[in-house]
Design goal:
The protein is mainly α and about 350 residues long. Helix content is about 80%, strand content about 0%.
Length: about 350
């Protein structure tokens, strides 16, 4: 890797890592937050899903923004949104303030993550530099899930919950400064297509996801099902019309047709499942009667293993066997290990 590639890879790793403060800390933050503001169970659930819903709404817009305005500039603007959301949450006195703050944090975080990944691909497009950059980037998530939950749980045992989003706001400022100092200036950009199609795609994805989530409820709410179903259908139909009429659509399904796209999507999905450890932490708290801090320590070995796998095992495997063979082998190994969870019982020792 060249010095410029190392600098940008380090900057992206730090920037993306800081955006994970919300997803890793919200599990521990929600209980003292709800108690302090006397939130109902429904309001608490709404707060928990607010970052996810906001992320789904803007995920397609993120890529379009990076192409249109430049990746460095887009990351800085998204960091400002993230910081604003954290500040709103820190000063919230009502349910609406909590939901708006978390939604802004979620939207800002996903835009940064999408654009940063695109920038990393452009910085190290192939060869050994590509493998080194992406294995380094791969360690960001397990490191964040190792450190941030423990730090958040420990902090909440010492100070008021509002200090946690204050730290998130500081992290947003750090992202802006790191982008200014460590990322290259954007080149001049021209028009990159219309914006309506990625907006409609985001609405369809959000409504469809919410619909599936509600179908899993017992009992499901009829009004929510009708509203989300109608919104999803209307958004999809409108998206089809816009894409047919637009000379240069801002949203396309063509990348899905590429040979490596489906294995990549499956791999990303499986990696995402591993982050269910956040919710496993809650189960551990109740099942073994542990404090949040103790529960966060219990899942630390899993994240340490992920760090070792991402930085050392993955890099060597890719260099020796290539991306495709290495990916298949690691997916099979991950699936085999996860099968062990099937035999877990309430009496299973915590070390298992």
């Amino acid at each position: 890797m060249t010095n410029a590639q190392r600098r940008i890879t380090l900057a992206i790793s730090v920037i993306v890592g800081l955006t994970l403060l919300v997803i890793t800390g919200l599990t521990f933050l929600v209980q003292p937050l709800a108690e302090d503001l006397a939130l109902s169970d429904q309001a608490t659930e709404d707060a928990l899903v607010a970052p996810t819903i906001a992320s789904l709404l803007v995920v397609f817009i993120a890529g379009r923004a990076g192409d249109r305005f430049g990746q460095r500039r887009t990351i800085m603007v998204a960091a400002a949104v993230f910081t604003t959301g954290a500040a709103v949450l820190a000063s919230a006195q009502t349910e609406n303030g909590v939901i708006v703050g978390l939604a802004l944090c979620g939207a800002g975080a996903i835009i940064i993550q999408v654009v940063a990944l695109s920038l990393l691909q452009r910085t190290a497009p192939d060869g050994k530099a590509h493998a080194a950059a992406f294995t380094t980037y791969g360690t960001v998530f397990p490191i964040a899930f190792l450190i941030f939950p423990i730090a958040t749980a420990y902090l909440l045992a010492l100070v008021d919950w509002r200090w946690v989003p204050v730290l998130w706001a500081i992290a947003g400022i750090v992202i802006v400064v790191a982008s200014m100092l460590m990322l290259d200036r954007d080149e001049a950009r021209g028009s990159s297509g219309e914006w309506l199609s990625p907006i409609l795609a985001g609405i369809a994805l959000t409504a469809g996801t919410r619909l599936l989530d509600e179908l899993g409820s017992r009992p499901p709410d009829g009004r929510t099902l009708i509203f989300c179903g109608a919104a999803c259908v209307v958004a999809i139909l409108a998206l089809i019309v816009v894409m047919k009429r637009a000379a240069n659509p801002g949203f396309s399904l063509r990348p899905i047709r590429e040979v490596m796209m489906w294995p990549l999507m499956i791999g990303v999905g499986l990696v995402t499942l591993i982050q269910i450890l956040t919710y496993v932490t809650i189960s551990i708290e109740y099942l073994y009667e542990m404090t949040p801090f103790q529960a966060s320590l219990v899942i630390a070995p899993a994240q340490l293993g992920a760090i070792i796998g991402a930085k050392f095992v993955a890099g060597r495997a890719i260099n020796q066997w290539g991306v495709e063979r290495s990916g298949r082998g690691m997916l099979l190994a991950t699936g085999a290990v996860m099968l062990l969870l099937v035999v877990m019982q309430p009496s299973t020792p915590v070390w298992y």
